[in-house]
Amino acid sequence: MKKVLIVLGIIIGVMILGVVIFMMRFQQMQKYTAENFLRVTNVDMTQIPDGVYNGKAGDFVSTVNLDVAVNDHKIGAVVIKEQLCGGPKYEARDMTNKIVLAQSPKTDVVTGASGSSKIIMIAVYDALTTK
Q1: How many domains does the chain have?
Q2: What CATH number does residue 51 fall under?
Q3: Do residues 67 and 52 touch, judged by C-beta distance below 8 A?
């Protein structure tokens, strides 16, 4: 019985440690998103030559790797190559259409997926502004 209690105590301790580590990393991700989203602004598309630009953004449980196609100084398409998030309902893939329609990386977020939406906007902004 004593061994069972010791094993149970160890298991509970490991679980608590796991939750604490997860929460710390999640807070770091939220800080990353908030800080990087502040720099996302409208981009002067007249300065962007035609081409396909790659952008990556994210941290921990929300990351994206995407391509932005520019044609005639307009965003023609945003194609998500890889996305890691909290599951399908958090993917915010509608965000790519919103960005194309707005012709800007900064637009309204997708309800229920605001973190993923912001990560996508950060990646699009980085794709268009990083040389």
Answers
A1: 1
A2: 3.90.1010.20
A3: yes
**Residue whose structure tokens are 């149970």:** 8
- In whole numbers, what is the pLDDT of the chain averaged over residues? 87
Position 90 scores a pLDDT of 55
Domain with 94, as residue range(s), is 37-129
In the structure, what pLDDT confidence band is assigned to residue 69 with cuts at 50, 70 and 90? very high
User: Which of 116, 63, 75 lies closest to 94, judged by CA?
Assistant: 116
Distance CA 88, CA 91 (A): 5
Q: How many residues does the chain have?
A: 131
Tell me the whole-structure pTM to 2 decimals: 0.80
Distances (CA, A) of 105 to 44, 77, 98, 123: 11, 12, 9, 9
Specify the residue for token string 């449980």.
61
Task: Describe the crossing of helices 114-129 and 2-37 by its angle, rounded to 10 degrees.
Answer: 50
Task: Tell me the three-class secondary structure of 117-129, residue by residue.
Answer: HHHHHHHHHHHHH
Tokens representing residue 121 in the block: 């906007």
Q: What is the mean pLDDT of residues 24-49?
A: 89
